[in-house]
Amino acid sequence: MITLRELTKRYGETVAVDGLTLDVKGGLVTGFLGPNGAGKSTTMRMILGLDHPSGGEALIGGRPYSSMRHPVREVGALLDAKALHPARSARSHLVAQARSNGIPVSRVDEVLEMVGLAKVARRSAGAFSLGMHQRLGVAGALLGDPQVLVFDEPVNGLDPDGVRWVRELVRSLAAEGRTVFLSSHLMSEMQLTADRLVIIGRGKLLADTPMADLLAGSALSSVRVRTPDMADLHTLTRHLLKDGDVRVETPAAGELVVRGRSSEQVGDLAHGLGLRLHELRTVAASLEEVYMELTARSVEYGTGDPLPDGPRSGQTRGAEA
Amino acid sequence: MSAVTADVSDDRGGRAASGPAGGGFAGAFASEWTKLWTLRTPYVCLLVGLVVTSVFTFYYGSIARINDKPVQPVGNASVSSVVLTQFALVILAMTTVTSEYATSSVRTSLLWVPVRARVQLAKALLSALVGFVTAMVWAVLGIALAWVPFRGHAEFELPKVAYQAVAMGVYAALICVLTVGVSFALRTAAGAMAMVFFLVTALPGMLVGLGGPVLLAVNDYLPQTAGGYFMLGDGKAPFPDAVSLLILLVWAVAAQVAGLLVLRRRDA
């Protein structure tokens, strides 16, 4: 488990990470989201002892990273896949890593095989593509077979095959009971991968909640209603709009998208009015929509327009997901 | 794979005694050793040093004979070559640090060995070891190559030869330690190289060039000058050889402390 308590990082006047308190638990994939400059990488670097916190603490299994005798066996980290010497071969890089923590060299060939780099293991890493770098980074993270994994943008630069591979790998690691803490900018990917989400903006915690709750609880979730009778549609709309907190859109003829009411409420209302419905279903907001809604207020130089009336809101993108 | 998992979970709480082997300083040193010899730079440095030693000592012997210099210990040829060849070792030691900053791989190193002093000590010790062994090899090679062109203008006494070869090793080791410290303090190859070159080579040249009792006295305490006294061991130094060695040690330790202060305080 990763524990952050009032974790803070200041650079002069700027507060990059502002009193972050949260637990990242084992057996789950915890996604870490936030706009650029929100403090994600700084937080991860503090967890891994690379940056010194200005206040608070970051512990892994109750201990600071720097106190571990075999950190590679306890925590697998992928921060910057290109942070290696380009002239050294992939295998030599991993052998040096293995020796630093008393890991048998045979394990190096095992992980190289696992990430699909066995054939290019003796080539210098500088000649690798971004995707191969990411795979090498993942190999390094897995080398010590650790219980805790910290990945910063692991799918960055991977092809669709690689993205899927990382997703399945990460899910299987969590399924084995390991703690997985993962940042990504790809919302659709995060929605498929993470069980739980931590969202920060301007260094502050915006959300720390299970993915399902976040999506279900969003004001962007909507109810889609379809009826064959235009008159019924108007009746329903009129009744729904009697209360001020409900918003209704008509994306196509005979269709209604209702926000602010659950499908049960809309269904009961239609039943009470004796209206004929052909479709009634809840459309959960996509992670992207919820994320934009949450962070819109925290983006320093954003447009300042909280999403709901933006161009995307009328579309029920979640319907396809 | 599963064996490692078991090791990891069994190790929770318990430290070295019951936990898996490896790691710690031994692990850090083994890792640095692997990193050093899996790049081309050290081999190039050692080869360049070998070539320069060969040429320099051969000419040293020839010139001593041509100019009809008084008989001197044959090892003086090797000792004199150090003013040049030390920079092959300086570059070797420096790149173990600066190449990691240039490629950001220092962060990766600190993830493997999160105790910063341990990383620095491993690099310092490794460079010292390489410097010590290499300089002794160069010393012996230089003696062998200079012996022929000296043609009687040098004497071979085994204890003296042994002293000078070991002293060269010790000097090279300490210059390497100094370089690693400076490199951690300055982080860039250009900065570290400029600083080491200024301190080791340029400054003594300036002080001797300007002359005067004060500047010459200061010069005696600079690493290369004190090192020269120590390696020649001819009794002409202003202080005993042990003091010369101590001066070298102080320089090396001071550079290490400077490097450690920067390494520990700053974010990686």
Automatic annotation (TrEMBL), chain A:
Domain ABC transporter residue range list: 2-227
PROSITE patterns with a match to the protein in the record: ABC_TRANSPORTER_2
Keywords: ATP-binding, Nucleotide-binding, Transport
Entry-linked InterPro entries: AAA+_ATPase (IPR003593), ABC_transporter-like_ATP-bd (IPR003439), P-loop_NTPase (IPR027417)
Domain of life assignment: Bacteria
SUPFAM superfamilies: P-loop containing nucleoside triphosphate hydrolases
GO MF term set: ATP binding; ATP hydrolysis activity
Protein name as annotated: ABC transporter ATP-binding protein
Organism phylogeny: Bacteria, Bacillati, Actinomycetota, Actinomycetes, Kitasatosporales
UniProtKB/TrEMBL annotation, chain B:
Transmembrane region(s): 43-63, 83-103, 124-150, 162-184, 196-222, 242-263
Top-level taxonomic group: Bacteria
Keyword Heme among UniProt keywords: no
Keywords for the protein's UniProt record, in alphabetical order: Membrane, Transmembrane, Transmembrane helix
Protein name in UniProt: ABC transporter permease protein
Organism from which the protein derives: Streptomyces griseus subsp. griseus (strain JCM 4626 / CBS 651.72 / NBRC 13350 / KCC S-0626 / ISP 5235)
Upper lineage: Bacteria, Bacillati, Actinomycetota, Actinomycetes, Kitasatosporales
